[in-house]
Design a protein that fits this description.
Blueprint lengths: L2 E2 L15 E7 L2 E7 L2 E5 L4 E5 L5 H9 L1 E6 L5 H9 L7 H4 L4 E3 L6 E3 L4 E8 L2 H7 L1 E11 L4 E2 L2 E2 L12 E4 L2 E3 L16
Antiparallel strand pairs: 1-10, 2-3, 2-6, 4-5, 5-10, 6-9, 7-8, 9-10, 11-12, 13-14
EC number: 1.5.1.-
Protein name: Flavin reductase family protein
Organism: Roseateles agri
């Protein structure tokens, strides 16, 4: 299930710190890796910062193409996320090698991981100093989609009846947490002096 997410809401797909699957394609090669360090940095246009280690094939392909995609895995994708983040992609296509299903994104045609709950196609915004010194890349989102069972109208909906669709949050060594409880806050009543 996929529906288009208005780009004005695209940063909400990552603002709560989920693990993301980063994929890239260039000259017939493609790969995917997991990343725990990503965050929105601007709403309009939607821009995201993400850390891509120098040793990754994903970084190599993203730099060569100027593009990358983010797929947001859910509880049901924990094994895919762990494998994508634990196995080096040198010389292999992780999608084929591990049976990770993918589909092409609607704008850039990048490989998006099937079974996830949100997908973003992005163009790199080159910042060589940040890339070299901190492995931090900035991207602009050009397309966003979500699974409406868990994200619709610009909002996440984590409920007891959709726990398999809750986002993953990496704790280390293959251990992930998922949001299992949400709390709706309200503005405090203002007190008069």
């Amino acid at each position: 299930m996929r529906e288009t997410v208005d780009l004005s809401h695209a940063s909400r797909l990552v603002n709560h710190g989920p693990t993301v699957l980063v994929s890239a394609r260039h000259e017939g090669r493609r790969t995917v890796m997991a990343a725990a360090w990503s965050m929105p940095v601007e709403f309009t246009p939607p821009r995201i910062a993400i850390v891509l280690d120098k040793s990754t094939t994903t970084r190599e392909l993203a730099l060569a193409s100027g593009e990358l995609a983010l797929s947001i895995p859910c509880k049901a994708n924990a094994d895919v996320a762990y494998t994508a983040g634990s196995v080096h992609g040198a010389g292999i296509d992780k999608f084929d090698a591990y049976g990770i299903e993918a589909f092409d994104g609607p704008v850039l045609g990048l490989p998006l991981v099937a079974g996830c709950i949100a997908w973003l196609e992005c163009r790199l915004i080159r910042e060589p100093r940040s890339e070299e010194a901190y492995d931090t890349f900035f991207v602009e989102v050009v397309s966003a989609q979500s699974d409406p069972r868990v994200f619709t109208h610009g909002r996440w909906s984590f409920r007891e009846d959709n726990t398999e669709l809750h986002t993953l949050h990496h704790l280390g060594a293959g251990l992930f947490a998922v949001p299992s409880l949400t709390v709706q806050a309200r503005t405090l009543d203002r007190r008069e002096p």
